[in-house]
């Protein structure tokens, strides 16, 4: 697309957005074949939920909105199937089939065309990951507990290639649509929810003024401020109740190398990683290494059973508020497991050391 055409495209988008923004309301009209009189739910970015009853497959929603945002539409009884799309001030229409929500057609604003463009690109990338995960799953079902170094290298190299492709694809999309609210949403989805601080900062800097001022642009800016609290060199501290209800401060462990590990009993990747953490703890605890595991559980029994079953014999704390814990917001925890390693002065020196990397780092520090 030429520079002149791109500039014209952006100006048209901006005029549409500014014109609609004055309205401050949205109207979503939907028609789903295969839907009779069921209830449908409209959810705004995992926050407020609205509902309506469909009549012969037709339904509508009206609400207040100041700028384009990402919404999810679900049908009662089919909560695991959803249509994801952008609603902007003004009229938006949705058409499709109740059994194929991922294929609905959205019209009424330019953002869904951009979003679909991204989904095609993203689908091409994720399709490459399918055979890699199938090989791992096949090995697991065949009773193979651990892949060989050669197999692991093939998998790691493949995932690294997909990561590189993702970074290039997001960069290309933002270059094409620097003012679109879809761009910061993709940054949130790819580099905040799946932490990649370098790419988060790089791609956010590429956004235009309007995109930075959008709902998702502001969320990224706020996330970057929060991220400074666990950046290399930061000195985090907090107090949380341990398994007996006694408040424990992170700073009470200073004088040791400390791994702060956010996890949960229901987190499969966390439980899979625990044997590596146990091994590192057993090898280096007597040499000045300690751990504070912060659980995002809400059920104490489930938490305690996982601690016992996984043989986690170190410091454990939790306010049992799950994702509603103030620590989640204060330290920008978007996924588990998330961890950071502190030096003897309580400063962050490494983050998210997985597999053998934790043991390798401790070996380096203890020399």
Automatic annotation (TrEMBL):
GO MF, one annotated term: oxidoreductase activity
Taxonomic source organism: Chitinophaga oryziterrae
UniProt xrefs under InterPro entries: DUF4369, Redoxin, Thioredoxin-like_sf, Thioredoxin_CS, Thioredoxin_domain, Thioredoxin_ResA/DsbE_sf
Cell compartments where the protein resides: Cell envelope
Family annotation (SUPFAM superfamilies): Thioredoxin-like (SSF52833)
Location of the Thioredoxin domain: 229-367
GO biological process: cytochrome complex assembly
Protein name: Redoxin domain-containing protein
């Amino acid at each position: 697309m030429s520079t002149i055409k791109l500039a014209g495209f952006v100006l048209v988008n901006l005029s549409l957005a500014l014109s609609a923004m004055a309205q401050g309301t949205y109207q979503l009209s939907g028609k789903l074949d295969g839907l009779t009189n069921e209830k449908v739910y409209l959810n705004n970015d995992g926050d407020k939920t609205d509902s309506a009853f469909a009549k012969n497959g037709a339904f509508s929603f009206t609400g207040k909105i100041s700028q384009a945002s990402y919404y999810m539409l679900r049908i009662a009884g089919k909560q695991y199937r959803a249509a994801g799309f952008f609603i902007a001030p003004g009229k938006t229409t949705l058409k499709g089939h109740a059994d194929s929500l991922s294929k609905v057609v959205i019209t009424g604003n330019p953002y869904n065309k951009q979003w679909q463009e991204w989904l095609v690109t993203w689908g091409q990338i994720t399709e490459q990951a399918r055979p890699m995960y199938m090989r791992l799953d096949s090995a697991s079902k065949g009773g193979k507990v651990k892949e060989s170094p050669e197999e692991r290298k093939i998998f790691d190299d493949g995932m690294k290639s997909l990561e590189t492709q993702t970074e290039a694809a997001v960069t290309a999309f933002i270059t094409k649509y620097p003012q679109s609210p879809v761009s910061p949403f993709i940054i949130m989805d790819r580099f905040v929810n799946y932490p990649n601080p370098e790419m988060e900062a790089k791609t956010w800097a590429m956004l235009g003024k309007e995109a930075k001022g959008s709902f998702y642009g502001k969320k990224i800016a706020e996330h970057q401020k929060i991220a400074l609290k666990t950046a290399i060199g930061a000195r985090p501290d907090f107090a949380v109740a341990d398994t007996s209800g006694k408040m424990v401060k992170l700073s009470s462990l200073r004088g040791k190398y400390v791994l702060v590990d956010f996890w949960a009993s229901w987190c499969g990747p966390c439980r899979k990683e625990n044997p590596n953490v146990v091994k590192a703890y057993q090898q280096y605890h007597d040499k000045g290494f300690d751990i504070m595991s912060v659980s995002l559980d809400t059920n104490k029994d489930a938490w305690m059973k996982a601690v016992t079953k996984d043989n986690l014999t170190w410091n454990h704390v939790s306010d049992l508020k799950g994702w509603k814990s103030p620590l989640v917001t204060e330290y920008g925890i978007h996924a588990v497991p998330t961890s950071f390693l502190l030096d003897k002065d309580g400063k962050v020196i490494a983050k998210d050391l997985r597999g053998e990397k934790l043991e390798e780092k401790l070996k380096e520090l203890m020399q």
